[in-house]
Amino acid sequence: MIVDSAIPAAVRPPVSAVQQWWVLTVRMITPTLRNGELATQIVGSIVFTIGYYLPLKQMMGAVQPLSGYAQYLTPLIVLQAIWFAAISAAFRSATDSVQGINRRFRAMPIPALTPLASRMTASMYRCVVALIVSVACGYVIGFRFDNGVLGIVGFVVLVLLIGAALALIGDLIGIATQNPEATAPMMLIPQLTLGLASVGLQPVERFPEWIQGFVRNQPLSQWVYGLQALAGDSSGNAPEATFAVLGPGLAWVLGCIVVALALHTWVSRKRRSE
Amino acid sequence: MTLESPESLVSAPYRPGGRHRREKVWENSPKRLVPQVAVLTGRILRRWSRDPATLVQSLVMPAVFLVALDIVLGDVIEQVTGHSGLYGQVPLVALAGGMTGAIIGAVGIMREREAGLLSRFWVVPVHRAAGLLARLAADFVRIVVITLVVMVVGLALGFRFEQGILAAVVWVFMPALFGVALSAAVLTLALFSSSTIAPQATEIVIAILMFFSIGFVPLDQYPKWLQPFVEHQPVSTTIKAMKGLSLEGPIAQPVLLSVLWAAGIAAVCAVPLAIGFRKASKRG
Fold first, then answer.
1. pLDDT band (50, 70, 90) for residue B134
2. Which range of residues forms the domain containing residue B124?
3. B253 in a domain, yes or no?
């Protein structure tokens, strides 16, 4: 009789995509509490805040238009902090990719996008931590929100949007290189170059003429303009939070997300056929 | 490591039982140490030269960083001090490149510990100090190469040696002095910690040493209460010595202070480093 076959046929347990996403997210977040990742992220944000603020306050403070150098500098500090969070994301994505757990997930009854979704959720968690710590650091040195609740909400939303774009790029670099050690140097070069050559440290007029076009239009500068506008300033010299100021920054963010998603799809498809 | 060539085996005097064919040199003799360190150093350097990440970190990143630093802070510093900011920035970037490279060494030694390579070396007749000395020698070579790259970029931007050829030669080796001492400290940390905390903690220490040094902005730009730290920390003394060796200023005192810093760090690390390396080599 065929019905009495010796092959055991267990009933497939019910799977819930939401629960799978949650389990994979917790898997990424729990280690950060134990292995010192969270602690170093907090200490790192503090060090970079005072590291930019104390030495540059005198030289740069006199030439910027806002009420204080802290008000001018804090958007850049926030951006640097979420960039560091994205480097962690790249490191984790590369580790997962090289250790073969992504391949393993593909052999299990998990929706194709769940691993990526859980990695992105963990990245947003790092991003929120970076945002809270860096804004707290900013408050200590003298940064204040001066544009009402709407300004604060806009500030947070823009930072998280940029954070998502950077985390997606980091994830892409991790999955494309499959080399955990390579991720940090690959992302640090643009961070340092764009960070120094941006309007976050000093106004664009202070740069040599030939490089001003690049400095003004590169993504980090446009994001700094947007965040400065949303944070506002007591002196009234902050840029207005209009579409003309916020538009280019938003275009950069959305452009980054679209390009990164397209490349991500392409790389994942290549990995799948391996 | 140092295998005799077939000819020397053939020409060795015949002794019954096959003993004593090898040259009678004690396993831990200095005569073995030097060629073994050379072989192991070559191994590490060859690995680095074939790893794109290490090459980018060591050669491209310092160059890009120096150009960015000069564009942003160059004019301001020249207005404040009257001479080009490059005389502080070139040493700062060379030191930063050398110091961040210590992380690559730390990750490397942790990986070789996990893979069992260290234990493998421990059971072959290699001088006990060769593994560690080779790591430090490789770091020395790496930092000198980084310094030369940064120097060439600096020369293109307008950096010049005003103190003659001898001072220039000493200048090239100054970052390696502190860099190797720091590498020893980072290696010690890596050997005693099992997680990824070592590289991250190192990054924070490097950031502090870099931001609060006289190479970033001149000393009088820092708040009064911070100036004693900024003036006497090892990166600043090294930069001051290098400024004296390239542009003008005191040489003897900052060089002496830098040597003292390096010797101090080496003295503190030596014993824990040796113990940690022995422990890591006997694992598994």
1. very high
2. 43-281
3. yes
